């Protein structure tokens, strides 16, 4: 292995780069199974704070108030949705999508009177007059929300005994197409909206907002996510959401990482679904646990210091040691043990004075840097010391440095873009997946094919449906 001498300048990446390299995969609308029976009954899928954050990111729905016809209390739009969902055991994601499908009220900044009066389209059939007695009975935002959620509950409990309503497993003609609903909720949707366009619109809204079937977004390991509303940042590592509680870490340890901006709802959903331990420590922090063991934090690893004598011999300052619990270090892998007898115990970048090649020397070993991008992705801000060939030759060769997790890369002549995650190169299945997850082409590094080939191939990165993140 020969480390690089001089790296070529980084290539500018444009948005069309993924075009010829990825498939045009798209989730297909299945008219026989629009939503799942299990998902429709998940009344706990969103908390009140989740609903409020979601609608506030979309428009002015929560600023609208009305009197709940069930308990007589005046409530905001978000609270009306939450209470109706809980009352009838219906997923609030469906209720929100129903309102958007029927009136577009969720994505409207200032809802009109008509949008509020007929938000769920309840009691309004094609050709019906809004002044008809039945329509007037259900006029008003709160009545519409209650009726929209309540009707779905009523159908699921009573439809099996009806000779009029559409049924799961029984063929029905929708907009000239024969459809056999595969489950109860699909039959219910055709009973509520007896045409194909409206139901496909509902499916598209659910897919765009929540992913097909209502799944939350997931991000590959190494991704940084940021709450665009308040600037809070977390690291996705080991499938867990790890809050970064020191702002200084963003400009030091994660200086070159790709940060994906999320709205408050998606950020909170990741937090609630997979909370891990917080990222508390800067690189090269010294921490001591309740067992008396002292570690040096080195990236995603913790390096145990072999003895008090080694601590003193290496030159550490006792006043710099922070207290930590074993739980604080759960998400750090064990790195090489630190001993005073090791050459380059703390790790050092060495540049061969004669060849210009750069190596990472640590604990008596050397690792070749095959590409200049590694200085940014793995060693941002670390100094490089000139060394003679004899010093470098004395170190045992331990293989080249691999690209840090969370780095976006591509190679010349290959338009595929990869994210390094868990040490593997994971291609994006489509451009929609790349953009839908919030990644930026401006952060893609051009690297050598030799360096990319050192990383085993991982699963392609895709999201359920074409999902657009709202600002």
Brief overview:
With 471 residues, the chain is α/β, with parallel strands linked by helices. The protein has helices at residues 37-40, 48-58, 77-88, 92-103, 113-117, 133-137, 141-158, 184-192, 196-210, 247-251, 264-274, 308-314, 373-377, 389-393, 431-436, 449-453; strands at residues 65-67, 74-76, 172-174, 177-179, 224-227, 233-237, 240-244, 259-262, 286-288, 294-298, 301-304, 321-323, 333-334, 348-352, 358-362, 365-368, 384-387, 396-397, 408-411, 414-421, 424-427, 445-447.
Question: Helix and strand layout, with pairings?
Answer:
Elements (H helix, E strand, L loop, with lengths): L36 H4 L7 H11 L6 E3 L6 E3 H12 L3 H12 L9 H5 L15 H5 L3 H18 L13 E3 L2 E3 L4 H9 L3 H15 L13 E4 L5 E5 L2 E5 L2 H5 L7 E4 L1 H11 L11 E3 L5 E5 L2 E4 L3 H7 L6 E3 L9 E2 L13 E5 L5 E5 L2 E4 L4 H5 L6 E4 L1 H5 L2 E2 L10 E4 L2 E8 L2 E4 L3 H6 L8 E3 L1 H5 L18
Parallel strand pairs: 5-8, 9-12, 11-13, 14-17, 16-18, 19-22
Antiparallel strand pairs: 1-2, 3-4, 5-6, 6-7, 9-10, 10-11, 14-15, 15-16, 19-20, 20-21
Helix pairs in contact: 2-3, 2-11, 3-7, 4-9
């Amino acid at each position: 292995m020969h480390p690089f001498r001089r790296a070529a300048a980084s290539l500018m990446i444009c948005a069309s780069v993924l075009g010829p390299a990825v498939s045009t995969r798209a989730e297909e609308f299945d008219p026989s199974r629009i939503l799942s029976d299990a998902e429709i009954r998940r009344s706990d899928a969103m908390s009140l704070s989740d609903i409020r954050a979601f609608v506030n990111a979309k428009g002015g729905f929560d600023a609208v108030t009305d009197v709940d016809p069930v308990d007589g209390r005046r409530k905001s739009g978000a609270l009306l949705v939450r209470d109706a969902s809980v009352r009838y055991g219906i997923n609030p994601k469906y209720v929100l999508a129903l309102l958007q499908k029927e009136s577009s009220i969720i994505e409207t900044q200032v809802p009109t009177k008509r949008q509020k009066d007929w938000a769920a389209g309840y009691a309004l059939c094609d050709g019906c007059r809004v002044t008809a007695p039945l329509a007037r009975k259900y006029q008003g935002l709160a009545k519409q929300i209650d009726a929209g959620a309540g009707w779905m509950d009523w159908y699921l409990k009573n439809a099996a005994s009806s000779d009029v309503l559409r049924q799961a497993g029984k063929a029905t003609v929708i907009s000239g197409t024969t459809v056999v609903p595969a489950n109860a909720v699909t039959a219910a949707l055709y009973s509520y909206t007896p045409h194909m366009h409206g139901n496909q619109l509902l499916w598209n809204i659910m897919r765009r907002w929540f992913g097909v079937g209502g799944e939350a977004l997931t991000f590959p390991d190494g991704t940084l996510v940021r709450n665009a509303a308040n600037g809070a940042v977390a690291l996705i590592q080991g499938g867990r959401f790890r809050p970064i509680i020191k702002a200084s870490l963003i400009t030091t340890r994660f200086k070159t990482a790709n940060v994906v901006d999320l709205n408050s709802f998606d950020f909170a959903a990741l937090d609630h679904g997979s909370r891990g331990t917080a990222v508390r420590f800067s690189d090269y922090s010294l921490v001591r646990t309740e067992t008396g063991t002292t570690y040096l934090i080195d990236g995603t690893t913790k390096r145990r210091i072999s003895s008090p004598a080694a601590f003193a011999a290496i030159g550490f300052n006792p006043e710099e040691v922070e207290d930590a619990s074993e739980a604080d270090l759960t998400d750090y892998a064990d790195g090489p043990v630190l001993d005073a007898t090791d050459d380059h115990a703390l790790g050092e970048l060495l540049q061969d004075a004669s060849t210009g090649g750069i190596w990472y020397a640590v604990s008596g070993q050397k690792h070749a840097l095959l590409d200049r991008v590694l200085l940014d992705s793995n060693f941002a801000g670390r100094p490089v010391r000139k060394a003679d060939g004899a010093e470098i030759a004395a170190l045992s060769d331990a293989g080249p440095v691999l690209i840090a997790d969370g780095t976006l890369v591509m190679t010349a002549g290959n338009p595929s873009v990869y994210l390094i995650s868990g040490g593997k190169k994971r291609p994006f299945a489509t451009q929609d997946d790349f953009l839908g997850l919030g990644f930026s082409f401006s952060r893609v590094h051009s690297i050598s094919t030799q360096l990319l080939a050192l990383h085993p191939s991982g699963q392609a990165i895709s999201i359920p449906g074409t999902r657009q993140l709202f600002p």
